[in-house]
Amino acid sequence: MKILEIRRHSMRLKTSQHLSQEGVNLARSIGKGLGPFDFVATSTLTRALETAIAMGFAVNEQVELMNTYGVEVEAQAPWPMPFFHYSEIVKQDGVAAKYAHQLYVSCLDKVAQGGSVLAVNHGGVVELGVVACLPDEDFSTWGDEASHCEGARLYWENDKFIKGNALRVSK
Predict the structure, then answer these.
(1) What's the alpha-carbon Rg for the chain, to the nearest Å?
(2) What proportion of the chain, given as a percentage, has pLDDT over 70?
(3) pLDDT for res 105
(4) What is the pLDDT at residue 129?
(5) Which residue from 39, 54, 59, 146 has the highest number of Cβ atoms inside 10 Å of its Cβ?
(6) What are the sequence ranges of the domains in the chain?
């Protein structure tokens, strides 16, 4: 089995691409309970890279596809929405589904059996990717969109995702 943990970046000031001190503190706190990871990927945007580093992990690769999903996908899947709503959009098999299906599987190719991957990216990207990986999951219990440093842990076996769970940050 392989494990994929997907997290949304931490907090930043709206006027900056960098994490705020509060965001660094949150990422450090969350990072203490994570890992180890054999491979870490982030979007190419500063806040995702800084989140992984503040969590205590060196970044192996930055993936532009994880930055944002663009205008066409945004039209089908505007952020923010609960996981369940994203799952209904992915089931329609439009541009949002095509985008979502290509997000994470290549990261798992970078680790051996028993390995684990951390992917840090952005609101909307997290949810779309998760629901595409688990097409048969009932997301009605997963709640609202992923907030800062929240996401999901997915389990990969026999060339497919077999289960997952939401990862929430205590308020």
Answers:
(1) 15
(2) 99
(3) 84
(4) 93
(5) 146
(6) 2-167
C-alpha to C-alpha distance for 18 and 89, rounded to whole angstroms: 31
Most distant CA pair in the chain: distance in Å? Answer: 44
Q: Give the pLDDT of residue 123.
A: 95
Do the beta carbons of residue 23 and residue 30 sit within 8 Å? no
Per-residue H/E/C for the chain: CEEEEEEECCCECCCCCCECHHHHHHHHHHHCCCCCCCEEEECCCHHHHHHHHHHCCCCCEECHHHCCCHHHHHHHCCCCCCHHHHHHHHCCCCHHHHHHHCCCHHHHCCCCCCCEEEEEECCCHHHHHHHHHCCCCCHHHCCCCCCCCCEEEEEEECCEEEEEEEECCCC
- Mean pLDDT by runs of 10 across the 171 residues of the chain is 98 94 98 96 98 98 92 91 95 88 89 97 95 94 97 96 96 69
Q: Distance between CA atoms of 104 and 22, rounded to whole angstroms? A: 28
Question: CATH 3.40.50.1240: does it fit domain 2-167?
Answer: yes
Residues 19/13, Cβ–Cβ less than 8 Å: no
